[in-house]
Amino acid sequence: RRAGGDGRVKPMNRTRETPHRAAREPNETHKTTQACSGHGTCGTFDECICYPNWQEADCSGRTCPFVPAHVDTPKGDLDGSADALSGTSTTVIAGSTVYPHGTTEQYPLMVDSAGGSLTNTGHAYAECGNKGICDRGSGECECFPGYAGAGCQKATCADPTCSGHGICMNAQNLAAQDHDNVYNLWDAEVGFSCLCEPGYSGPTCASKMCKYGIDPLYYDDDVMAVRAPTARVSFSVGNLTGTKAVGDAAAFGAARKSFLEGTYAIKFYDAFGEDYETAPLSVGAKCPEVVAALEGMANDVVPKHGVACTMRGYTKSDKPVNGKGPGLQTVAYDLVFEENPGDLKPIEVNAYLDGERPTVYLADGNSTDQEFNVDIDVFPNWKGISGEFVDYFPSICHGVQFMVAKTPQNERTLGAAFTDSNSGLSADEEKLLKACLGDADGNADNNLEVYNWDYGTPNSTNTPHIVKLAPTDDSKSGMYDAGTFNLVWYGRANDNADASTNKFYFSGLPTSDTNKKFAVFPTSGVATVLATNKTAVTARFDRGATKVYTSYDTSCPELGIGHINHETIMNACLNKGDKVFLFNNRFDTADAGYGDGDGLTDAEVDQSATAGNMYEVVKVGVDAPSATTATTEDRFYFVVDKAINWDGSATAARSTSSSSLTDNGLNAVEAAWLSKLGDSATVSQLIGLQTIVKFDTSTAESYEYVAQCSGRGLCNEGNCECFAGYTGDNCNLQSALAS
Question: pTM here?
Answer without folding.
Answer: 0.83
